[in-house]
Design goal:
single chain; alpha+beta; 1 helix; 6 strands; 17% helix
């Protein structure tokens, strides 16, 4: 009986440890996005693999001619210096109500805000 309980306990421990390694802090799927604009007001990202509505339609008034994009959000400026406009990124995120940091109010940026929790080198599921 003790052997059965020990085996069962070890099995439960193994299963719980496997599950802990797969937990994500943000959304349930990895996201793929393209950096559209890096400004003093934050970084505009367009979701490229959205399976549902994410963010909002955004018009880049900084481009000539003006271009419009679906599924856009605004995040902080931590990408400055590491990434450029047009780069594709893979990330985990969470929606927020305000961005942490000191940003200028230039207007015309998406009102949908996210915080990127983690960036990934690549994403096979995206």
């Amino acid at each position: 009986m003790k052997t059965t309980i020990l085996k069962f306990s070890a099995f439960l421990l193994l299963i719980s440890l496997m599950g802990a390694g797969c937990e994500k802090e943000g959304k349930s799927e990895y996201s793929k996005g393209q950096i559209l604009a890096i400004t003093c007001g934050g970084t505009v990202i367009q979701f490229l693999n959205a399976t549902h509505k994410v963010g909002e339609k955004w018009s880049n008034n900084f481009s000539n001619p003006v271009k419009s994009y679906e599924n856009c959000v605004l995040t902080g400026d931590f990408l400055v210096g590491e990434y450029n406009e047009g780069d594709i990124i893979y990330f985990d995120y969470k929606e927020v109500e305000i961005l942490d940091g000191d940003f200028c109010d230039i207007g015309g940026l998406p009102a949908s805000l996210i915080e990127i929790i983690e960036l990934y080198e690549n994403c096979p599921d995206c």
